[in-house]
């Protein structure tokens, strides 16, 4: 059956401020310390973000899944913002599966869950079926809301199989992020985005992320199709040709402006929690 994504009157804005790929030495504006991540989170919340997708860095600015450090960052962002805290379980391409799963021990509100293996530039981002099922079922048991990351069309068929065999996610609502323009994944084009829509599960919402120079076309296509947006320095380091991104808030502010032009203004953090089915804070603390 062909389904249509659920339209929304407001736009859920997610910021992905850091990622695991860029080096602080190459990108001085990249937030990597706890203080920098908190300051970015506050700035981005102020200009319209409702969710933060977090990769954590160690004291040497390198990506880490060290649980103590991850917990510290989660607690700090929760203390200083109302943002929905979504931890990456994708990590870096070099991270082992057990460490990626262990991130759930930090009890975030939400976590990313990638639905298949994909070439990632010259690397391979590995996501075999057993890992997908383990992440999905552990999140169900722990009350963590998944955001299903889709790098290619076939991964939506995997989502259908996952939900069919293992039931709905915690919170009951399916939210997908189309990650587009990764070298090895689907291209960041309006055509590719449109091709994904009939494969979304009934009642699902979707966001889209365009990596690098596909950021703007993907944002415009997603807004026009009733979708939500993810932006940030994990995905985009150039604001315009030859112009480096100043900070994450600059990217969120641009997304918020486009969402307002589309008459689907940024969603509040409370509305984001309601949409995604996030556990109330009292249940977490
Ligand atoms: N860093 C990429 C290899 C996620 O956060 O879940 C994987 C990634 C996806 O960023
Ligand atoms: Zn990520």
TrEMBL record:
InterPro entries hit by this protein: Aldolase_TIM, BKACE
EC numbers, comma separated: 2.3.1.247
Keywords recorded for this protein, A-Z: Acyltransferase, Metal-binding, Transferase, Zinc
GO molecular function per UniProt: 3-keto-5-aminohexanoate cleavage activity; metal ion binding
Signal sequence range: none
Superkingdom per UniProt: Bacteria
Top-tier EC class: transferase
Gene3D superfamilies in the cross-refs: Aldolase class I
PANTHER family with a match to the protein in the record: 3-KETO-5-AMINOHEXANOATE CLEAVAGE ENZYME, 3-KETO-5-AMINOHEXANOATE CLEAVAGE ENZYME-RELATED
Protein name in the entry: 3-keto-5-aminohexanoate cleavage enzyme
Species of the source: uncultured Blastococcus sp
